Each structure stands twice: as structure tokens, then as C-alpha cells.
Amino acid sequence: MNQIPRLRFAHLPTPVEPLPRLSATLGGPPLLVKRDDQTGLALGGNKTRKLEFLLAEAVANGARTLITAGAAQSNHCRQTAAAARRYGLDCILVLSGEPQPPSGNLLLDQLLGVEILWTTRQQRDADLQAAFQAAWDAGRRPYLIPYGGSSPAGAAGYVYAMQELLEQGLHPDWIVFASSSGGTHAGLAAGKRLLGYSGQVLGISIDEPQDVLQQRVAELATRTTDLLGQPVTLQPQEILAHAEYLGAGYGIPDTLEKEAMALFARQEGLLLDPVYTGRAAGGMIDLIRQGFFPRGSTVLFWHTGGAPALFADRYRTIVE
Ligand SMILES: *Cc1c(COP(=O)(O)O)cnc(C)c1O
Asked: Which domains does the chain have, with CATH numbers?
């Protein structure tokens, strides 16, 4: 693969741990967890790996301000804010929702002292462009990080993550994780193709129908292999995605998420989050109960972080 610019601040390699008590409770396949909730950078998560490449691109472009967008409880925005501070950059976050008292990720954004602009989900892209233009006109040298950090450079972080897993001597039959803006999914799918991983890369959709997610991930994975100098085309049909667990929508946890969060906490002392990993683990547990994973297979749950949202006011009733 081409060497592409990278700054090093993630705590890597992240550990892989067995989940013996959870596996026994579910009576399913042996389960492992890859701890990307422990990547460092203001409480960690999957965005750290992406940001190593995104920050390198920003710095190489002479950026002085990072701009990105997300939900009020966005982990991506919190980690982007921390990365900006670490490299002495300004940061503007365009958050969809109502201005609200700080809690969870939003509290950390404010602690990091970055600028916050409020928008609606419908206006988000227009307001992001407007914020970029205003910063440009003011001479602040803005660098736009797309939603979720899911550009080819960001997704490259998960190609290298796949390489890291293989170098740890691990070759699970299935890798299961939360998929939303698609960068994690695209990186792992591209990594599978480029590095010859023969297991399956299965994303649990957080907020998109299956065909939309497959299309997005295939396109991003294809562009990522191009960036890495080993162009291959990934087709939407070869992207594995389950979209049966969307519930009442993004950021609205229900029984599925609550049960998964309680099981991981009470069987393994592991914290999931209400938006992403709770939903993905809930989907994985449902698939185990359905007998989806063939007998004798090993399943690795790739933990993508998100626990700061546990301390958001809106999730105060998550524990039953
Ligand atoms: C952003 C995020 C995801 C989704 O990753 P994508 O690369 O955007 O698909 C999953 N889990 C957590 C905790 C996240 O913050």
C-alpha cells in the first residue's frame, strides 16, 4: 500500500479480549472484543484512527481551523475537537439539535473550548458549507472534515486497523460492529480485500436502510483503495450490512439496546453506548439467538467507543 501522511497519537494496538461469560450466557459462538473504545484522545473511540490521517491531511494543507458536523452527542465531534486542540488548531462544530445545557459529549466539547453552531438535521449541510465559507473569508484556513470523518483518508484508518488485527495473530470468522457514516465499514471491507482476510465483515446499520449503506460503503471503500495505491472496485452486493435494528431511529434506544448494554456490563464489566455499540451488540445478540453464525465460528465484536454519551441528560433513563 502507498504510505499516506499520518500523525501518530492513537494508543495502538488496541487489545483483543475474550468474552467468556457473555458467550456462555448466550450459548452461542465464542466471542471476542476489540477495544477501540480505548484508542485514546479524549476518551477514545473509532474516530481516533480516522483522525490520525485526517489531521495529517489538514496540517499538510496548512489548515488552522477544523470544521465538522454531527449530532449534539456526536463522538466524532468530541474527538475532532480534542485532535484540533492537540495540534493547536481552532475548531468549529456544527451540531444538529436545540441549544441545551452541557452533558455527555457536549460537555466535553465545551470543556475543549471549541466553537459550536446549532442547526437542524435538514439545514446541516448548508450550514456547514456556510460556516466553512465564513471561516475561509475570515482567513482562518478552514479544513472540512466530512460527517463521521468518513473520507477516503479517514477510512484508511480502518484498513490499517484490519492489518493490526491480523498482525495480532487473530483471524475471527466474523467481525461485527456499528456502521453509520460508513468509514469504519469501508476501511474494514477494503482491508479484507487488500490484505486477504477470509472472514466476514458485518456492519450493523445504526440509521440507514441496507441498500443505502451498502452503496455508500462500497463507493467509499473503492475510493479508499485508490488512495492507498491499490485500486480495486467493491460492489454494493459484497458489503455485508444488517439493517433490521433501526428501531425508532438514530439516538433513540429501546429494549434491544438496553438489554445489550446491561448484558455487556453485568457479564463482562464492559460499557457500551446507547447510540452505536448498544444497537450493534443488540443486533449481534439477536443474530446469535437466531443461529445466524455457523457452529464452530468465532465472532469478534469491534467496540467503536461512545461511552461518554452515557452521561448525557437524555440517556438518564437508560438503566433499568
Ligand atoms: C461514529 C461511530 C460509529 C460509526 O462509525 P462510522 O465509521 O461513522 O460508520 C460507531 N460507533 C461509535 C461509538 C461512533 O462514535
From this structure: 16-45+150-319 (3.40.50.1100), 47-148 (3.40.50.1100)
